[in-house]
Amino acid sequence: MTAVHVPVLLREVLSHLDLRPGLIVVDGTVGAGGHSREILPRIRPGGRLIGLDRDPLMLGYARAAVAGPDVHLQQASYRDLRSVLDALHLPAADRVLIDLGLSSDQLADRTRGFGFEAGGKLDMRFDPTSGISAGEWLNTVPEAELVQALAAWGEVPQAERLASALVRHRRRRPFETTDDLLAVVRSEFGVRGPHGSIKNPAPQVFQALRIAVNQELEHLRTFLDDVLPRCLVPGGRVALISFHSVEDRMVKQALRPEHGWTPTPKRPILPTPSEVRVNPRSRSARLRVALRTPAADRS
Q1: Distances, alpha carbon 150 to alpha carbons 100, 138, 191, 235, 275, in Å
Q2: What is the β-pairing status of strands 232-242 and 93-99?
Q3: According to the model, what pLDDT value does residue 195 have?
Q4: Which of 96, 114, 141, 268 could be cross-linked to 238 through a Cys-Cys bond (beta carbons 3.0 to 4.6 Å apart)?
Q5: What is the dihedral of CA 21, 24, 29, 34, to 10 degrees?
C-alpha cells in the first residue's frame, strides 16, 4: 500500500520533539506513517515507537512505512494510551505526537465519505465496524443538536438555516451519500464563486459531521485532561497539531503552566508559505508543543 498523504509541519515536529536514541515515542494518530517514518531512525538504537490509529485502513499504510521489533502499531484511540502502555509494560512515554487532521488518503476514499469532492456513501467513521454512520446520525439527530454541531464544531454560518433545510430533506428522503448532503448545502448557499471563493460551507459541514460521528472532541478532552498527564514522563514533550479553532482552543487551554505544562514556544507554530504552496491542506494547521513540568516545579 502506498499512501499519498504528506505529513504537515514535519520539520517543525521533528525539531521541537527534540528526538534522540533511546526514547519511547507515541504517535497517537499514526495515519499513513508520514511523521513516524522520520521519527523512527532518530530514536534508534534503543528507542521504541508506538503508533495508534482508530482507522484500520490507515494502520495498513503505517505498517508499510514503519516496521521492526522496536515498532508497535495498534488500532486504538490516543484516548486509550494508558491501557496500551500498560499492556506493553511501559510506565510512560518520553514524547507524544497527536495530529488531529484527516489524511488525504481518507479524503480520497469513496467508500468512507470523508471528503465532499470524492463522493460515495455518507459514512465518515474512523472505525467502520463501530458506531453509527454519518448518514444514520444525520437522519436521526434532533434539529437542535444538529444546529449546535454545525455551529460549534464546523463554525458553519447560518447553522439554523442549514439544519432546517437538512431536516426538511430527510423527511422526504433519508441521506445516504455525500452527494445527497452536498446538494442541500449547495441549494442553501450556492456554489463556488468568482476567483475561487467559496460561498457554501461544505468543508465545515463535513467537518462537523465527522467530529460528531467519531466523538472527536470527547476523545481529545479525555486525552488532554486525564490521559496525557499520566502517560508522559516529567520533562517529556507533547506535540499537538490541530486544524480548526475549536481543537486549538482546547489544546491551548489544557497545556497551561497551572496544569503542569510549559509551552515551548508560547505561540502556535504555523506552516511556512512554502509548505502551504506545496501542500495546501497544511494552511490551517497549528502546532503546539509543551514540556511536562517536573512535579517539584508545579505549584
Answers
A1: 19, 11, 19, 39, 30
A2: parallel
A3: 43
A4: 96
A5: 10
Q: Are 42 and 13 contacting, i.e. CB atoms less than 8 angstroms apart?
A: no
- The DSSP output letter for 21 is T
CA within 13 Å, CB half, 86: 6
Q: Report the distance separating Cα 28 and Cα 79, nearest Å.
A: 9
Task: State residue 101's pLDDT score.
Answer: 86
Whole-number Å distance between alpha carbons of 176 and 174:
6
280 in the Ramachandran plot: left (φ > 0), alpha (ψ -120 to 50) or beta? alpha
C-alpha cell at 38: 522520520
Based on DSSP, count helices (H) and strands (E) in the chain, helices before strands: 14, 7
Q: What angle do the packed helices 178-189 and 159-172 form, to 10 degrees?
A: 130
pLDDT along the chain (299 residues), means of 10: 78 98 98 96 98 94 96 98 98 97 76 77 92 97 97 92 97 95 90 50 92 96 97 98 94 96 96 94 95 70
Is 204:152 a contact under the CB 8 Å cutoff?
no
Exposure string for 143-169, b = 16+ CB within 10 A, e = fewer: eeebbbbbbebbebeebeebbebbbeb
* 170-203 CB burial, b ≥16 within 10 A, e <16: beeeebbbbebbbebbeeebeeeeeeeeeebbbb
Quick check: 99 and 241 in contact, CB under 8 A?
A: yes
pLDDT at 294: 83
Burial class, 217, CB count within 10 angstroms (exposed 0-12 / middle 13-18 / buried 19+): middle
DSSP character at residue 218: H
| pLDDT at 4 (0 to 100) | 67
∠ CA 105-111-113, nearest 5°, is 75
Q: Are the C-beta atoms of residues 224 and 238 closer than 8 Å to each other? A: no
* Number of CB atoms found within 10 A of residue 63's CB: 15
Model-level pTM? 0.91
